[in-house]
Specification:
The protein has 1314 residues and is an alpha/beta fold. The chain is elongated. 41% of the residues are buried.
Length: 1314
């Protein structure tokens, strides 16, 4: 031992004072000190120098193991003491002896464990907690692993040999002092999650994460992670007791039943019989079960183990003098209750001893009770309230906030001490002002409009004394709300109205104020049975509810704005908005609230209940419903209704086996009469759930036996076939593929997949092909998706069809929501429409119609069911890269059928759709209007025709008054859809009709948030929702309602379909503020990354918010060194006068206008997916005269020839120099419509520009219009010659010379040709 060399090792950031204390505790023992500085601190360097330590710099990499291993490499000792800067040895002079004694126990020791005392209060051992920590390592042979909470492991992977040091090696740790605890916790969570992601998650990660979340009081996560840790295969040396302790405390915080906690405590005692902790836990639990004798025995056992010194145990304990004092105090109270005063007195002395003799002498014989009120102008109610409790209390305190009636006199008449206080819109402040005058041991703090019921008021003192003797802190009193006018029961609930007076206990919150202890923790709560005590409340009578709600809302919003705990208000804001009928804002704040997890407050479930009601009533919100229901069942395991909601949410997804399991859980739970949550699961709900379970069982059983056929007809669909095959394999028993002539490999894929392949000769008839596929199917149901369609959730199909069989046996076919996805635009949703995709076999169903085939039934009309939410189908056939060809194909098929049999009912609708898809808006408008005159309607998609009409009207610049009229008609036709109220509101806003526009926009958003029964009609509102919300925000801003505009903008940003419009309103709303602050607010909402910042700069440039753009550029340059240039137009604007700048802009725009026709001609010739969209957008930028001419050029049969020739003259040069033959032909027809002279001039210009195709066509048109002449024939000959048609040129010249043998130019050209 004499040659044993000891090193001391540290990794330090900037904890200089702590480091010096630690270094002082080792310097007399060790042979070298290694300090690794991770932040380059000069103060750390000075401290290292003072203690003659070797200093090394190591850049911090968010990895403790890397830093520790680097430090170990610098050590030369046989043993290394590796302390944190905030750890130090209690006995420096005995340190070497202690290490040698530990080594003597086992010469093969790898790690010496030391007892580490974690101080929770500075310089106080009363509440300190001890744990065993590996702080002394034999070297070499060990290294650290883990980014955080790193573990020392052997280099050879072998099992570590541990030895536990004696008291000579005891050390202290100050890193978890209360005022500093959360600093480390949040840092540690981030590092643990990163380490798990980098190296794979283990039970060790779960253990340390559980410890972190316990420190943050997130008890649900603590429990979940603790269970994960214990189920792993890692031994937590010295730490497993800590896991069990945290699990019991978490179960208590989450209101597990006492019976459940007792089972766990007994198991912990069996595992750790030498620790006092779990005997004390068992005692607390037994008190809750009113098993006082057993509780006393458990507490005494805990204190025996504490007295006998359990420090030799190698498991962590939370027991200390402070805990022992609480146990002794509880024993004193228990023995008082058990009628053994001598034992009670003995344990009270022990309590004082543990506390250091600071608790005073004796126990109070009589509990003193104070009743408190804050009042204003409520004399009548106050009298009734005081009458209900005055015989039970010792002191009455009334804080008056400005009464003008007889309130003060009434209070004084009952002997109350009245204090006056100026009202500040802050209920907590008022209540705390009243508490300052209290002298009682217990406080009854009720409102003037509350009174104790006649049946229970005489129990008040007895209930309080019982709570005083059994350690109660806050009592939840049954709270019966009635309408004072009618006597109607409005709500039965519980309210915390009685509590023990404690030093520093206070209220927080301007409204819906809550009790907190001096350290801002929530005091423990005990529920009182209604038979013992009941409080009646009349303050929410129907006439007063809205008035109070609006007052409460004002105070809550002010607290959120100015308070330091805005999250406290979220559940109250959700409830207040809900009561006021504002479902959108109720949802907003409820989501914020549940995002924090379950709170340790009374009725923490209120936000969950609001969301479950909102989402559960709307099938389209089933995903949100399931997410909230799953969280509610997890957070409130003691409430059966939460499991029942979860079951219903699972059933909405047709996950019936899981729904049955969740329902069974709900039915097993017996609602507890204790805790802070009151169950509302009634006997009627129990029976209804049983009936639902039976239906679910029938559906689940039937799903196993039914047969499903997937049917499709194809032709060269190889790009989609693989997806269709894999999708149908999930649910189909047989797959029918009807091939109509594929040559691209589609057949090979189908054969390889084992489908039933049928050859079918294509007859330009979609119905015939589809009927061939159905006819080959043999299942109970046929799923008839097209090749470019697939289910988002194919696993849902079988259960869904089983549900239809069991619940809807009369239904023949089901319309499903078809979601049109543009695969060429990043998967953007383009719209939705319902179509029949599920057919029940054996019902005589068939299809009719060559194009856009319709379902028919042999002996009548098919019974259809419209599914609004489930089984959404992904359709990629309208992707921008495919849609043009599809529209052109359909138009050709439709044209042939119309030629054969004329227009049929329904054709106008399809022609309108097709022409609109091809950008032929004038024709689309004609056919849309004609379709609306037809008696034919499309099930579930009739509203789409009105959308089509409005879209075409907008594209064709139809006067606003006509567009408004069309939107009003659509509103009348579909009064329950949000769509047309939204579009009407946007049109009215554009017409500056703000009042009616706001009403329409508000109604649209209300229907969107709370969908009404639309009789199966599909809505396209999601496409418009963002624009509608942004427009509403703008109107509210312009009307001076800034806070309402701010709320609406939150929705607009969440919808995220009209971000620029919302941003423009936001910046204008905050235009008077510093733009740096505005930019910070926007980054907080949209993201703080460089991409978002660059986007905001571009937005600000585009919308003219120059100060915002400058702020964004400055931040970009500062944060990432990226310089973004200012647009040239703004630099030009700064260098010119207003008149000069105006002239510059006009000239630039004129130049652009002249260039647009050339670009349009090029775009028209391209087949790129985006070309048609760019074409239409650019056409809309043309000046009016050019635009109406171009509309006629695009659609000569639908758009009239402009009366003036101005537009023609402006675009003429572009056609002469840049058109191809087809474009030139259409242009020359327009020229001819304006007159022969214009046709001749255009033809000659084509020839002069050597654009010979145009020239040839021009001369042809002139010949057709006025007959052949030597000049027209010569022109055709010359053009033909340039186009390489020499024989044709000779023919034209021969005919010219036959008409005029002396025609000089023809003779000369003929000679040249020969």
């Amino acid at each position: 031992m004499c040659h044993m060399k000891i090193s001391a090792c540290y990794i330090v950031k900037d904890e200089v004072s702590e480091l010096c204390r630690s270094l002082a505790s080792v310097r007399e023992t060790v042979d070298e000190i290694i300090v690794v500085s991770t932040a380059g601190s000069t103060a750390v360097a000075d401290a290292a120098s003072e203690f003659h330590a070797h200093l090394y710099d190591f850049p911090w990499k968010n990895d403790f193991s890397q830093a520790r291993n680097y430090a170990l490499k610098q050590c030369r000792g046989d043993f290394v003491i590796f302390l944190d800067a905030d750890e130090y040895f209690f006995h420096p002079e005995q340190l070497r002896d202690g290490i040698e004694a530990a080594i003597h126990k086992n010469k093969d020791v790898d790690i010496i464990m030391i007892s580490l005392c974690n101080f929770m209060t500075e310089n106080s051992m009363k509440d300190a907690m001890r744990m065993w920590s590996p702080r002394i390592l034999r070297m070499p042979g060990l290294h650290y692993e883990g980014m955080i909470h790193e573990q020392a492991v052997r280099d050879d992977g072998g099992k570590r040999v541990l030895v536990y040091g004696d008291a000579r090696l005891d050390a202290g740790h100050t890193g978890y002092l209360k005022e500093r605890g959360t600093e480390k916790i949040r840092r540690n969570i981030a590092m643990l999650e990163h380490d798990a992601e980098m190296h794979g998650r283990t039970a060790m990660h779960a253990f340390y994460l559980a410890d972190c979340y316990f420190g943050l009081k997130d008890y649900a996560k603590t429990l979940m992670l603790s269970k994960e840790a214990l189920q792993g295969d890692i031994a937590f040396t010295g730490e497993e007791s800590k896991i069990c302790h945290q699990m019991i405390e978490s179960m208590r915080a989450l209101h597990y039943s006492d019976e459940e906690m007792l089972i766990f405590a007994d198991a912990a005692i069996e595992k750790f019989p030498y620790l006092p902790d779990f005997y004390a836990q068992r005692g607390m639990i037994l008190c809750g079960l009113v098993r006082y004798r057993e509780a006393a025995e458990s507490f005494e056992e805990a204190l025996r183990h504490y007295k006998d010194d359990f420090s030799s145990a190698h498991d962590s304990s939370f027991f200390n003098n402070a805990v022992a004092a609480l146990a002794a105090e509880r024993l004193s109270l228990l023995y008082q209750e058990l009628g053994e005063p001598a034992k009670a007195q003995f344990w009270m002395k022990k309590h004082r001893a543990y506390m250091g003799g600071n608790m005073g002498e004796g126990i109070k014989d009589n509990v003193r009770i104070t009743a408190c009120y804050i009042v204003r102008d409520d004399a009548v109610h106050l009298k009734k309230s005081i009458e209900s409790l005055r015989s039970q209390v010792d002191e009455l305190i009334v804080l008056d906030t400005g009464s003008q009636d007889d309130t003060v006199h009434a209070a004084e008449a009952y002997g109350a001490a009245v204090y006056h206080w100026a009202w500040q819109d802050d209920f907590a402040a008022a209540r705390n002002a009243a508490l300052a005058h209290v002298t009682g041991d217990w406080i009854v703090f009720i409102d003037a409009d509350e009174y104790f019921s006649l049946e229970t008021r005489d129990h008040l003192r007895a209930v309080i004394e019982e709570a005083d003797h059994t350690g109660g802190e806050v009592l939840l009193i049954p709270w019966h709300n009635i309408d004072e006018t009618t006597g109607e029961t409005l709500l039965d609930s519980y309210a915390p109205r009685i509590f023990r007076r404690r030093e520093g206990r206070h209220y927080v919150g301007r409204i819906h104020e809550e009790l907190r202890n001096a350290d801002d923790t929530v005091p423990s709560i005990r529920m009182i049975a209604a038979s013992l005590l009941s409080l009646v409340h009349t303050g929410y009578s129907a006439l007063l509810t809205r008035e109070k709600g609006e007052r409460n809302l004002r105070i809550l919003l002010e607290e959120v704005k100015q308070g330091n705990m805005p999250d406290r208000c979220w559940r109250y804001l959700a409830e207040t908005y809900d009561n006021l009928g504002d479902e959108h804002m109720a949802e907003h704040y409820a989501l914020l609230d549940i995002g924090m997890g379950r709170r340790s407050v009374v009725y923490a479930s209120r936000s969950y209940r609001i969301l479950l009601r909102i989402y559960g009533m709307q099938p389209l919100l089933r995903e949100k419903y399931l997410a909230v229901a799953e969280q509610a069942a997890r957070e409130f395991p003691e409430l059966p209704e939460m499991h029942a909601e979860y079951a219903e949410a699972l059933a909405a997804f047709h996950r019936y086996a899981e729904a049955i399991e969740a329902a069974a859980t709900a039915l097993r739970i017996q609602p507890s009469e204790s805790g802070t949550e009151q169950s509302v699961f009634t006997a009627e709900m129990h029976e209804a759930l049983c009936r639902r379970m039976e239906i679910w069982r029938r559906i689940a059983a039937h799903a196993e036996e039914m047969r499903i056929a997937a049917c499709v007809f194809v032709r060269d669909d190889v790009r989609d076939m693989e997806c269709w095959l894999s999708n149908t394999a999930v649910y189909a028993n047989e797959r029918i593929v009807v091939d109509t002539g594929s040559t691209d490999g589609t057949r090979v894929l189908a054969e390889k997949a084992g489908t039933k392949l049928i050859d079918f000769s294509w007859k330009d008839d979609f119905a015939a092909a589809r009927n061939a596929a159905i006819g080959a199917a043999s299942g109970d149901w046929a799923v008839i998706l097209d090749a470019d369609e697939s289910f988002f959730e194919p696993s849902e199909v079988r259960a869904y069809l089983s549900m239809v069989d069991v619940i809807l046996p009369h239904v023949d076919a089901v319309l499903l929501p078809i979601v049109h996805i543009d695969e060429d635009a990043g998967g953007r949703e383009m719209g939705r429409a319902p179509h029949v995709r599920l057919l029940r076999m054996g019902r005589g169903l068939f299809y009719e119609g060559r194009v856009h085939e319709a379902l028919r039934k042999m002996d009548g009309e098919p019974v259809l069911y419209h599914e609004a939410a489930a089984l959404a189908v992904r359709h990629v056939g309208y992707s921008s890269g495919r849609i043009r060809a599809k529209h052109e194909r359909n138009l050709a098929l439709m044209g042939r059928r119309v030629e054969e049999s004329g227009l049929q009912p329904g054709d106008c609708r399809y022609l309108a759709d097709t022409y609109y898809g091809l950008g032929k808006y004038a024709a689309a408008l004609i056919y849309a209007r004609a379709a609306l005159e037809e008696s034919v309607s499309s099930v579930g998609a009739q509203s789409h025709l009105h959308h089509l009409l409005l879209d075409a009207m907008e594209k064709e610049n139809v006067p606003f008054v006509q567009q408004v009229e069309a939107a009003r008609a659509a509103c009348q036709e579909f009064p329950q859809l949000p769509d047309f109220y939204g579009r009407l509101g946007l049109l009215l806003a554009a017409c500056d009709d703000g009042g009616e526009a706001l009403s329409a926009l508000t109604r649209a958003l209300k229907f969107y948030e709370s969908p009404a029964d639309t009789a199966g009609e599909a809505s396209e509102f999601p496409v418009w929702a963002g624009a509608v919300s942004a427009a509403r925000a703008r109107l509210l801003m312009e009307m001076g309602h800034a806070s309402a505009a701010e709320e609406e903008l939150a929705r607009a940003f969440a919808l995220d379909t009209a971000r620029e419009e919302a941003l423009d309103v936001y910046v204008e709303l905050h235009a008077s503020e510093d733009m740096g602050s505005v930019l910070s607010g926007l980054r907080g909402m949209l993201g703080s990354d460089a991409g978002t910042l660059s986007y905001l700069a571009r937005f600000a440039d585009s919308y003219g918010w120059l100060e915002l753009a400058a702020a964004a550029r400055a931040v970009l340059l500062q944060e990432i060194g990226q310089a973004v240039p200012i647009p040239e137009i703004y630099t030009t604007m700064q260098s010119l006068t207003a008149e000069e700048f105006g002239e510059k802009v006009v000239g630039t725009l004129a130049e652009y206008a002249r260039e647009i026709p050339e670009v349009l001609l090029r775009l028209e010739r391209e087949r790129h997916a985006e070309s048609i969209h760019l074409y239409q957008r650019l056409r809309g930028l043309l000046p009016h005269a050019m635009q109406i001419l171009w509309r006629h050029y695009d659609e000569p049969d639908a758009a009239p020839l402009p009366d003036t020739i101005d537009g023609y003259r402006t675009v003429r040069e572009a056609f002469i120099h840049h058109s191809n033959a087809e474009q030139a032909e259409r242009f020359l027809r327009i020229s001819a419509d304006y007159g022969t002279e214009h046709l001749l001039a255009a033809t000659e210009d084509f020839a002069a520009a050597e654009r010979w195709e145009g020239a040839f066509l021009g001369w042809q048109f002139l010949s057709a219009a006025g007959g052949e002449t030597p000049d027209t024939l010569y022109g055709m000959a010359l053009a033909a010659l340039h186009l390489g048609a020499c024989a044709e040129a000779q023919e034209y010249l021969t005919r010219a010379l036959s008409l005029a043998p002396a025609h000089r130019k023809s003779k000369e050209l003929m000679e040249l040709v020969r």
